[in-house]
Every structure is written in structure tokens, then in C-alpha cells.
Design goal:
single chain, mainly alpha
Length: 54
């Protein structure tokens, strides 16, 4: 499957230079994990919450 470049990609790469934490949040199956892999942040702490806080 071909990866679709996201318009926000350049902004996120700039944010990573200045901030130690980046939150990628959104609905299910919209490409959050794929975006993180293409940002090459897979070597940093990567967490997927197991549930929602009530």
C-alpha cells in the first residue's frame, strides 16, 4: 500500500526539534502509528493506551 504524505508532516518534524514529547491523537485506523513510523520516532518512547480514562 502506498503511503500518503500528510500536510502536517513538516510541522511535526519541526516540533520534535523543540519539544521532547509529541502526542499523536485521533480516531481509530486513521494512520497515527504509520505517521509516527514515517516521522522516524519509533526509537523513542512509544505508547498506545490500553483504555480510556473516565
Amino acid at each position: 500500500m502506498k503511503y500518503i504524505n500528510r500536510a502536517i508532516m513538516n510541522d511535526l518534524q519541526d516540533y520534535l526539534k523543540y519539544f521532547p514529547v509529541l502526542l499523536i491523537s485521533g480516531a481509530r485506523q486513521i494512520g497515527k502509528s504509520t505517521l509516527a513510523l514515517h516521522l522516524k520516532i519509533d526509537d523513542k518512547m512509544y505508547a498506545i493506551p490500553l483504555g480510556f480514562l473516565a
